[in-house]
Design goal:
- This protein is of the alpha+beta class.
- The chain contains 6 helices and 12 strands.
- The protein has helices spanning 3-11, 45-52, 65-68, 74-86, 92-99, 104-111, and strands at 24-28, 40-44, 125-126, 132-133, 139-141, 145-147, 152-154, 159-160, 164-165, 172-177, 180-185, 189-191.
- A 3-stranded antiparallel beta sheet has the order 8-5-12, with no helix packed on it. Strands 9-10-11 form a 3-stranded antiparallel beta sheet, with no helix packed on it.
- A hairpin with a 6-residue loop joins strand 9 (164-165) and strand 10 (172-177).
- The N and C termini lie far apart (66 Å).
């Protein structure tokens, strides 16, 4: 039996993502660990064009993932996960992603293309010169800072070693100055 016939049999001759019945084609899910039937899904021309050309994406078309993400076919789960990640900024896909469960192997496959590695969501702490700060770095103050509650001024040029990052605020770091643990604005330090 040909691959296309097997896919039609598995899917009931409908798009495994959108449920459409017209213009169906075989689609090989990228980075598949398997081959044959396990690595392919049957999708509509509309889905194919939007997967291959993200600039033509119609977010409302993909509301169909609300149903197809529950498929028992790992290749369908992978494509649903990837498309929901592409559309995260729309709001509603994040709710579906929060409900979607993929076993470890399927999730690894889904992430293999880099989909879902959204660097915009990662908080980055940058010094005054735009250098990335990390926990444990040493910085130098570039301005005299009045330390509230400690009644002293941290002088320009003071080295602050072994800083820690404030994880929910990219503009704050913590460190010790004159034996006091203080919060420092990243715009007033440079990495040393």
């Amino acid at each position: 039996m040909s691959l296309e016939r097997e896919l039609h049999k598995r899917s009931g001759s409908i798009c495994e993502l959108s449920g459409e019945t017209e213009n169906l084609k075989v689609y090989q899910v990228p980075k598949s660990p398997g081959t044959g039937l396990d690595a392919h899904i049957l999708i509509s021309q509309t889905c194919f064009e939007q997967i291959e050309n993200p600039e033509q994406m119609n977010p409302n078309h993909w509301r169909c993932l609300n149903d197809s993400m529950w498929s028992e076919v790992p290749a369908v789960q992978v494509m649903a996960w990837r498309m929901l990640n592409r559309l995260r900024s729309e709001g509603w896909p994040q709710d579906l992603l929060d409900m979607l469960y993929l076993d470890a192997d399927t999730l690894d496959w889904a992430k293999a293309t880099g989909e879902g590695n959204d660097t915009e969501d990662i908080i980055k702490h940058m010094d005054a010169n735009g250098a990335t700060l990390q926990s444990g770095d040493a910085v130098v103050l570039i301005k005299d800072l009045d330390v509230k509650g400690a009644n002293f001024t941290a002088k320009r040029g003071t080295a602050v070693r072994n800083i820690s990052l404030v994880h929910d605020n990219p503009e704050h770091i913590e460190g010790r100055v004159n034996g006091q643990h203080i919060v420092i604005l990243t715009k007033y330090v440079k990495k040393s």
